[in-house]
Automatic annotation (TrEMBL):
Molecular function (Gene Ontology), one example: ATP binding
Superkingdom of origin: Bacteria
Protein name: ABC transporter ATP-binding protein
Keyword Transport: yes
Gene3D superfamilies the UniProt entry points to: P-loop containing nucleotide triphosphate hydrolases
Record keyword Zinc present: no
Family (UniProt): Belongs to the ABC transporter superfamily.
CDD domains in alphabetical order: ABC_TM1139_LivF_branched
Length: 236
């Protein structure tokens, strides 16, 4: 459904993404893994329409996303869960969730989405009137994911959901991710290759702005030497 061909993205003279092609099929969790600076976040931001593209194509079900503004891409169902969460610290949990639904005009879908978020993250129900900024890191990550789900996503673009969280919280977040895939396709960026590969269907390994390896997550897990060659200690 989401298809990228020969994508090239530069920041001034710095070419961050050289020539990336990838596919995200309906119902899959696809992950992008690779070392710092490999171009993972740049790829996600390009899909959301937040960066100028110097070459290639990005399509969603054959619709050319390069002709769309960021809000139109969101309306088409591609919703980011950004690195660092990006919640509104001075709004309550409830208000943060409402912000996620700003493009949704069906009250029924809003209610259903809210119920989905509450089922996934009961922690948020208990804290609906708390300030976003007073939540723990794990709760903020839940809120960021919940807010994205309120936008009725077809595809979630998740950037490093495990970042800065304790292992037990990371496990909690990834369990939720494995439930979200029921109904929502996920393109996931993760530094923690081993973790991402345990939950993903398919993976692309990026290095220096290029895809250097791709395959089913299982096949990449089975070639652990190859993965650890790319990631050193990270793939543990
Ligand atoms: N705003 C920017 N201005 C200039 N160069 C940038 C900018 N953002 C990223 N880059 C450069 O683009 C390249 C790709 O960065 P990107 O953030 O996409 O990598 P990444 O794989 O997501 O890494 P990380 O895990 O560190 O976020 C790097 O060389 C980085 O220094």
């Amino acid at each position: 459904m989401l298809s990228i061909h020969n994508l090239k993205v530069s920041y001034g003279n710095i070419v961050a993404v050289h020539n990336i092609s990838l596919q995200v099929r309906n119902g899959q969790i696809v992950c992008l893994i690779g070392p710092n600076g490999a171009g993972k976040t740049t790829t996600l931001r390009a899909i959301s329409g937040l960066l100028p593209i110097s070459g290639g194509s990005i399509t969603l079900n054959e619709i050319d996303l390069l002709k769309k503004q960021p809000h139109q891409i969101a309306k088409a169902g591609i919703i980011p869960v950004p690195e660092g969460r990006g919640i509104f610290p001075q709004l309550t949990v409830k208000e943060n969730l409402e912000m996620g639904a700003y493009l949704e005009d069906s009250p029924k879908r809003k209610r259903n989405n809210l119920e989905r978020v509450f089922t996934l993250f009961p922690e948020l129900v208990e804290r609906l009137n708390h300030w976003g900024g007073n939540l723990s890191g794990g709760q903020q990550q839940m809120l960021a994911i919940g807010r994205a789900l309120m936008a009725n996503p077809k595809i979630l673009l998740m950037d490093e959901p495990s970042m800065g969280l304790a292992p037990i919280v990371v496990e909690r977040i990834f369990q939720a991710i494995s439930k979200i895939r029921d109904g929502t396709t996920i393109l996931l960026v993760e530094q923690n290759a081993n973790l991402a590969l345990q939950y993903a269907d398919y993976a692309y390994v990026l290095e220096h702005g290029e895809v250097v390896l791709q395959g089913s997550a299982q096949s990449l897990l089975d070639t652990e030497d190859l993965v650890s060659a790319y990631f050193g200690g990270i793939a543990t």
